[in-house]
UniProtKB/TrEMBL annotation:
Residues 249-268 are annotated as: Disordered. Residues 13-129 form the Phosphatidylinositol-specific phospholipase C X domain. Gene3D superfamilies: Phosphatidylinositol (PI) phosphodiesterase. The lineage of its organism: Eukaryota, Metazoa, Chordata, Craniata, Vertebrata. PROSITE patterns: PIPLC_X_DOMAIN (PS50007). This is Phosphatidylinositol-specific phospholipase C X domain-containing protein. It comes from the Eukaryota. GO terms for biological process: lipid metabolic process. SUPFAM superfamilies: PLC-like phosphodiesterases. GO terms for molecular function: phosphoric diester hydrolase activity. It comes from Pygocentrus nattereri.
Length: 277
């Protein structure tokens, strides 16, 4: 499974806000036994098709790190280099990066971006796809004011309302994404929540919801960014195919079939979830 070049299907003149983008929440926090947010290493996420990543910065002994708990934190320069390496070898792609951190940490990150300014989109204006291929697109986050402002919608802690909120957020995103960057964040937010437990249920509900919209011919033209914990390949592929179904782009890459749209199989939890070992 390799979706390293899926953005070839997006026309150059399409606004980035109108592209449905799979993403990860707390992208570097990888761990077993219910404490992490992701199962795939950072590079593998990008090769699987993830195009929105989320990092929290911190300084330690005068150096800037991206939180990678409970593993030793990754140097921010190393995380940035991994994105740059990926984009250098996949010219059709872009990666959206949202940062959070304290003012001192953010200022140091800005210094690093200034050294590679040709490879980074720092403007607040929504670009067209052709303007940002091979570039990192900065997304504003807590304490970080460079790049594109985003309407970020998260889910509350009430387990009974998560599915309803997710569907409402997807609907709102589809209504505004032609002119505004929209983010539906389904990741675990509360300290008392176990991210994998939340993802086991919610990823399946999200996949079922998108498939039902497709089967009923109600798929909107765009969904914005959808960031999740523990995304499986089928969920990523589903979001990609929604993006690619609107037309061929620079690479004339044809969209694949929607998962399950020909044989009617019921969607199981592990269809949309990467399980930790």
């Amino acid at each position: 499974y390799d979706k390293s070049n899926w953005m070839k299907c997006i026309p150059d003149d399409k606004p980035l806000s109108s592209v449905s983008i799979p993403g990860t929440h707390q992208s570097l926090k990888i761990e077993k036994k219910y404490k992490g947010f992701q199962a795939w290493e950072f590079q593998n996420q990008m090769h699987a098709g993830v195009r929105f990543v989320d990092m929290t910065l911190r300084r330690l002994s005068g150096k800037l790190y991206a939180e990678n708990k409970p593993k030793p934190d990754m140097k921010f320069s190393q995380a940035l280099s991994q994105i740059q390496f990926f984009l250098k070898h996949h010219e059709s792609e872009t990666v959206l990066l949202r940062l959070a951190g304290k003012s001192e940490e953010i200022n140091h990150a800005k210094e690093k971006f200034n050294r590679v300014s040709d490879e980074v989109w720092k403007d607040k204006k929504i670009p067209r796809m052709g303007e940002v291929r091979r570039k990192i697109v900065l997304i504003q986050g807590p304490g970080f004011d460079w790049g594109l402002p985003v309407n970020a919608m998260v889910l509350g802690k009430d387990k009974k309302n998560k599915e309803f909120q997710m569907k409402a957020n997807i609907k709102k995103a589809s209504e505004y994404c032609t002119n505004e960057m929209m983010l539906t964040d389904t990741g675990s937010q509360g300290k008392g929540e176990k991210p994998q437990k939340v993802a086991e249920k919610l990823n399946n509900q999200l996949g079922d919801h998108l498939m039902s919209l497709y089967n009923e011919n109600k798929i909107p033209s765009c969904l914005g960014i959808i960031a999740v914990d523990f995304p499986g390949t089928k969920l990523i592929e589903l979001i990609i195919n929604i993006s690619c179904s609107s037309g061929s782009g620079s690479g004339q890459s044809e969209p694949g079939p929607f998962p399950g749209d020909t044989d009617g199989f019921s969607l199981h939890t592990d269809t949309f979830l990467v399980r930790q070992s």
